[in-house]
Design a protein that fits this description.
503 residues, alpha/beta
């Protein structure tokens, strides 16, 4: 049987039959027939097939194919040929050959996959055989029962619960962090549909400067900053502790709102930490969680009639020995801002102090017994000391970044951080506490102290390193980016993080 492969291929194409399968079948038939002639004993399967009447008919019909005539008249379809192809494809020999080919292909694919995963398997084997990993797993098993008993807790509060109730070793979590076994493919996919983006305006007041930020935030709390303005506010509009002229402040704010196209966007107003004082009580020590309670009043730095108090329970309301955080502010100062917001007449997300929200976010990712955060402003430094789900108290240090700014930029930062470090040690020593390994830093004054000649010294950590929020900020690509400060990077990061925590 002589069949020209080129003609056969053209014929198959004309009949729209799969070339690979059909050509392979013919080749196999020729191969099996030759082997059958050489040794009938070696091929019992072929011997059996060749004896069947069906096989003989197939071979005869292959020999009698009129390929040339079929190619010359493509429109003419041979019923015999079509029937033959159908019969060949339905025969057991054809199916057996194709099955063998598929098995071979599958084997090759498996070999490639095994080869590709050899490195990963080898790495996992090394990790599992590592003594540190075995020790880590034993610790995980030790606290498994704790995890099961605390499933009712919110996800963000789980680690805090462990720390506060079982005093877990910080080293345990450091070891756990080394082993990344979670595949990013299993994470929730980002929803990038822009129709769900929300435009928001963020207002930040500190050091007689008012910053307006226009941004978009999506369902995954991904923030894109679109525009920024920074405006100096004279003392006759906002004094050191009071809004002197709400009408003028509203006019200044509306100019920025129109410039940044925030006319229908909700506003989040963030005020500098120096306008607030924080103290924490044990719930059992208060007769009532109210501003009229004598112990609550005794910790206010303001006159009783000019005091506004916000209460926040640090644990379940049913637990008598839990903590209650009180945030004090001047009533007339807050009223000046609420009057201004009424004139602006836009939806308001909230009016919040800067540092406490950042502090709570830090305690969720750090496991030291005490956390220290400093909010640096121009003339004052606010110091927050506390723990997760426990006490938090604020302290005012009577110096800020402006006192240490000089021509020698390196000494400016060095002198400031030495003094603030000494102040923290004195305060914590009086409370029989030790400073943590890292003191976290934020605030408008931080932008003035950090420069090309000086970076944050050892023992201090910029909150920007913590990645508390997911945002993009590219001043060069913005149509509106008008600032009076050399840098506002630290404030941008703080405000993006605060917004993420508020929405």
């Amino acid at each position: 049987m002589k069949i020209d492969p080129l003609f056969l291929e053209k014929y198959i194409n004309a009949k729209r039959v799969e070339v690979f399968d059909y050509f392979t079948l013919i080749s196999k038939v020729k191969f099996l027939r030759n082997k059958f002639k050489e040794s009938k004993k070696s091929f019992p399967l072929i011997k059996k097939i060749s004896r069947t009447e069906k096989y003989r008919k197939i071979i005869e019909r292959i020999k009698n194919l009129k390929i040339d005539s079929e190619l010359n008249d493509k429109s003419k379809k041979s019923k015999d040929s079509a029937s033959l192809i159908k019969e060949i494809m339905s025969s057991s020999s054809y199916k057996n050959i194709i099955s063998q080919i598929n098995q071979f292909k599958n084997k090759k694919v498996k070999q490639k996959k095994l080869k590709k995963n050899n490195k990963i398997l080898s790495l996992k084997k090394k990790v599992v055989n590592n003594g540190n990993f075995e020790n880590l797993i034993s610790k995980i098993n030790k606290y498994r029962s704790i995890f099961r008993s605390s499933l009712k807790l919110q996800k963000n509060d789980f680690i805090k619960y462990l720390v506060s109730n079982y005093k877990l070793n910080t080293q345990f979590f450091r070891e756990l962090k080394k082993y990344q076994f979670f595949n990013k493919d299993y994470l929730v996919k980002q929803n990038n549909n822009k129709k769900f983006d929300q435009k928001i305006g963020v207002v930040f007041y500190s050091d007689h400067n008012l910053i307006f930020i226009s941004l978009n935030i999506n369902l995954n709390n991904r923030i894109k900053i679109n525009g920024v303005t920074e405006i100096p506010i004279p003392g006759n509009v906002i004094g050191d502790s009071l809004v002197e002229d709400s009408n003028e402040l509203a006019n200044i704010a509306l100019d920025s709102i129109n410039l940044l196209d925030l006319n229908s966007a909700p506003l989040l107003v963030v005020l500098s930490s120096s306008f607030f004082n924080i103290h924490t009580f044990k719930a059992s020590d208060l007769k009532q969680i109210s501003q009229s309670d004598r112990k609550v009043q005794s910790k206010s730095p303001y006159l009783p009639d000019n005091t506004l108090v916000d209460f926040f329970r640090m644990s379940d309301a049913q637990i008598s020995n839990g903590f209650v955080r009180t945030t004090y502010s001047k009533k007339d100062f807050i009223k000046g801002w609420t009057d201004t917001l009424e004139m602006i007449d836009l939806p308001v997300i909230g009016l919040v102090p800067a540092a406490p929200l950042i502090f709570d976010a830090i305690t969720k990712i750090t496991l030291e017994e005490k956390t220290v955060l400093i909010d640096i402003e121009s003339t004052v430094t606010t110091l927050l000391i506390g723990g997760a789900l426990s006490e938090l108290n604020s302290y005012k240090l009577p110096f800020g970044s402006s006192l240490y700014i000089s021509n020698n930029l390196k000494n400016s930062g060095k002198n400031y951080f030495e003094r603030v470090s000494n102040s923290i040690e004195v305060i914590m020593k009086d409370n029989n506490e030790k400073p943590p390994l890292s003191i976290f830093v934020m605030g408008s004054g931080l932008d003035n102290l950090i420069n090309s000649e000086f970076d944050i010294p050892k023992g201090f950590k910029n909150i920007a390193e913590l990645k508390l929020s997911d945002f993009s900020y590219s001043p060069k690509t913005m149509q509106i980016h008008e600032t009076i400060s050399n840098s506002i990077d630290s404030r941008i990061f703080s405000l993006a993080s605060i917004l993420t925590l508020c929405v």
